[in-house]
Amino acid sequence: MISPATKPFAITLDEGSSRANHTGSWRTRRPEMTARLSPCDDACPAGEDVQGWLALAEEGEYRAAWERLVQHNPLPAVMGRACYHPCENACNRRHIDQAVSIHAVERFLGDLALREKWSAPAPLSPTGKRVLVVGAGPSGLAAAYHLALRGHAVTIREALPRAGGMMRYGIPTYRLPRDVVDAEIGRILDVGVTLECNSPVEDIVGAIEGGGFSACFAAVGAHLANRVQIPTSDAARIVDALDLLRDVEGGDPPRIGRRVAVVGGGNTALDAARTAKRLGADEATIIYRRTRAHMPAHALEVQEAVEEGIQMRWLRATARFDPGKLVVERMEVDTQGHVHGTGDFETVEADTLVLAIGQNVDLSIFEGIAGVHVTDRVIEVDSRMMTGHAGLFAGGDMVPSERTIAVAVGHGEKAARNVDAYLRGETWAPPPRPEIAAFEHINPWYYSEAERTVQPALDLARRQRTFAEVQGGLTADNALFEARRCLSCGNCFECDNCYGVCPDNAVIKLGPGKGFRIDLDFCKGCGLCEAECPCGAIRMVPEAL
Amino acid sequence: MSQRVKYYQTGTLTVGNRLLDDASRTVQASIDRSNALTSGHRACQGCGEALGARWVLDAAMRATGGQLIAVNATGCLEVFTTPYPESAWQLPWIHSLFANAPAVATGVAAAMRAKGKAVRVVAQGGDGGTTDIGFGCLSGMFERNDDVLYVCYDNEAYMNTGVQRSSATPPGARTATTPAVGPSPGNEFGQGKSVPLIAMAHGIPYVATASVADLHDLEAKVIRAMSMHGARYIHVHVPCPLGWGTASDATLRVARLAVACGLFPLFEAENGVLTGSTVIRNRQPVEAYLRSQQRFAHLFSGPSADPERVAKLQAIADRNVARFHLLQPEEHS
User: Is the domain of A243 the same as that of A161?
Assistant: First the structure.
């Protein structure tokens, strides 16, 4: 400190470093390190922390990545194949080049875990509570897994001869090989879940009480095929798509003839048509009453079906079916988007007609249970996934929702958390969801051009005649490449940009894994750190003035 | 793994990258960087020059093991870092006059040589101190091939004294002395003055242009320059939020646009010969760059809106692209 007597004229500060000058007082807004929700995480019906496990995979930490993955989804090898990956439709990278092939990396991790025989985490110590799960589909299996990990004794009762639900009896093997299904189910059972097959439940309340269960999660799926009345002669061969797929799985495919027509526009219709082709049909034709744009089937499935020679007849409605001959009416779309018949008919040659016009839940086992309500042929549940009957939870295809494997798995976990809370007399409060990291939060300049990795596909000749898996997996090299295409939306990946671009040295680097801190003594609030953060992990907030 | 996997998540465009080993990251990513220009300085919010100076000097400090003296011309950089009796510099630093930084640096280098010390010298100034006021001293330093790296931080006007035009101010730009009034508002379209090309004409060992748009490129050039002896010159483009009329958080975005449109070409030359260019990634029209700044706003709105002058600026950019080979070979058409 210079004494006033000796202080030179017109000096306001002591000699020394400029660090005595706290320029932070200029600031009207301050940067904050934040974590936004990546759009993939937001979109995942199974509640996966996609960005989190991709970040681990980027470092080659595959085991840790897989463990992060199965914190939510115990079926990654299945989901990496059979999920229609809404995460990728949300991926911010699609605004730069193409979405990260999340499903392919998920499948890589899932397959690696099976190959390396990685086991599920150890369950918590037993709670002494018993939980009944009805239905061993993806939803029931996920619920059983999460309940067992929390220390509850879980018994699954399954009506069919084997576990898997639609993973086994719906999705054809060329999309989902059964050794993968078996291995992932086996890993769930190894946690300590009891599985009883060929064991349909006819009286749920009786089964709960009689078996000494404290709660029940029902996920029986939607195995009843919708029917329509089609004028036909007795000899005409009409089968349901679900029966066809189930019989193929059972090793007893029906005789379908040389020409097969499939009515419907969903994934099941395409599965049936592609299966028919593999069973030896020369011609498999989809009959759909609206246009391709309206088809509920996934675009990739439609594309693969067309590649395999499945014919598409859009804007056609079935009018009459006689052996060898299907009469269809041409339809047209009016300006309002409604579909009308034109009165103009044509004939499609077909030996078998396959119906794939929707599925429903067999609700008979819920009849007469006090408090259980049915709306639009599905069971009503509250935000906890609980029906109106205390302790009876339900999920998967039998409750109002989109009917996909990811939704089913997500229901399983959500129900498990709520059942677990219910058993402790509590209510589970889901954690608050942070703001979503939108593309506006991304600074795309920092991401190099990197084309999406394409999975290898089976050659067409084998696809048309065998049930071998169509899509191949990624190698370790290209899985790593693909994981590293992730933008890490909303979550700091320690690129050091904020630290490097601050003109005032006001961002302090804390070291690997520790992130950064803003030095508010010197931060002038220019906002460069936020603007140059590639992934949107910094936000500017106004200072209270 | 059979092949080296590229770090495509961010390539090498970010300051650091947790997936890369320390040696492959920038100096600025290092927790041990020297912070030659430290906190508490009085530069405006988002100052490109403060950023550019730290980047250059930290790289030079690493390249010389901290054996470095800086000589500063008068200008923003001098004023905002050293209001007597404070200093934001964390290396030996000297300021004399506006015009004589190259000559003072020559003297410092001679003194080090006389004392038998291996201490290196960097001289630095803004565009006013370099392209106008100190130009004669600079040419002399080049001509004598004195062992000095001279760095010009070009923010395209005299910002410290209130945004007056310099010989580095681009045509059409509004400054305090070239207001946006009259039949040809903003700065006149002269012939321009490229000090990097003038430096090349001296045949000195190393000349480069750099920008705060590209840290990796800038650091590589500083490290290359410090690996050589004799007169060396680096011309660094540093946007000025105050003088250019940009938001304080837009500094790097605007710098990137200047490079991406071709108005600020990045190149290197040794002994008077062009040896390399940094190709443009995702080329932008000049208009995108001009529209990002208030100093060019009169070109686009009101009675003085003038597509012809925008086209002339585009022509300058196009000439740069051709002259300095700024596009990937397949992009030339």
Answer: no
Task: Give the burial class of A324: count Cβ atoms within 10 A of its Cβ; 0-12 exposed, 13-18 middle, 19 or more buried.
Answer: middle
Residue count (chain B)? 333
Judgement on whether residues A239 and A149 belong to the same structural domain of the protein: no
Tell whether A469 is covered by a domain. Answer: yes
Which CATH number covers residue B190? 3.40.50.970
Number of independent structural domains in chain A: 4
d(CA A8, nearest CA chain B) in Å = 10
CATH of the domain at A505: 3.30.70.20
User: Do A167 and A277 belong together in one domain?
Assistant: no
In-domain check, residue A123: no
A155 and A187 housed in the same domain: yes
Domain C-terminal end among A325, A340, A356: A356
- B119 CB contacts (<8 Å, ≥6 apart)? B64, B67, B68, B69, B112
Whether the ipTM is more than 0.90: the answer is: yes
Q: Are A304 and A267 in contact (CB under 8 A)?
A: no
The candidate with the shortest Cα–Cα distance to A223, out of A270, A276, A168, A304, is: A168
pLDDT in tens, B99-143: 999 999 999 999 999 999 999 999 999 999 999 999 999 999 999
Is B248 in Cβ contact with A526 (below 8 Å)? Answer: yes
Q: Under an 8 A CB cutoff, do A481 and B40 touch?
A: no
d(CA A322, CA A238): 10
Contact criterion met (CB < 8 Å) for A17 and B87: yes
CB contacts of A531 in chain B (<8 Å) are 249-250, 252-253
The answer to whether A497 contacts B15, with C-beta atoms less than 8 Å apart, is: yes
Would you say residue A232 has pLDDT above 90?
no
> Looking at residue B330, what is its pLDDT?
63
- Residues constituting chain A: 545
pTM for the structure as a whole: 0.91
Nearest CA in chain A to B81: A18
Q: Which of B10, B19, B87 sits opposite A446 (nearest CB)?
A: B10
Best mutation target, A30, A92, A497, to test chain B (most B CBs within 10 A): A497
Q: Using CB atoms, pick whichever of A18, A511, A512 lies closest to residue B40.
A: A18
* Residue at token pair 């009944």: A132
Q: CA-to-CA distance for A324 and A273, rounded, in angstroms? A: 17
Structural domain for B228, as ranges: 31-331
A248 and A323 in a common domain: yes
Residue A14: list chain B partners with CB under 8 A: 85
CATH number reported for the structural domain that contains residue A184 in this entry: 3.50.50.60
**Strands A215-218, A392-394: pairing kind:** parallel
Q: Is the residue at A436 inside a domain?
A: no
Quick check: is A437 in a domain?
Answer: no
Which of A501, A509, A514, A516 should be substituted to probe chain B, the one whose Cβ sees the most B Cβ atoms within 10 Å? Answer: A501
Q: What does the DSSP assignment read for A360-383?
A: E---GGGTT-TT--EETTEE---T
Query: What mean pLDDT do residues B206-212 have?
Result: 98
Residue B6: pLDDT band by 50, 70, 90 thresholds? Answer: very low
B112, part of any domain: yes
Summarize the confidence of residues A535-541 as an average pLDDT: 97
Residue A185 sits in the same domain as residue A291: no
CB contact under 8 A, A19 and B42: no
End-to-end CA distance of chain B: 40
Q: Across the interface, which of B3, B50, B247 has its CB nearest the CB of A477?
A: B3
Same domain, A110 and A134: no
Domain of residue A523 covers 18-35+492-542
* Closest-CA distance of chain A to residue B92, Å: 13
Q: Are residues A447 and A478 in the same domain?
A: yes
Is the pLDDT assigned to residue B5 strictly greater than 70? no
How many structural domains is chain B composed of? Answer: 1
Neighbours of A368 (CB within 10 A): 9
Residue B161 lies in a domain: yes
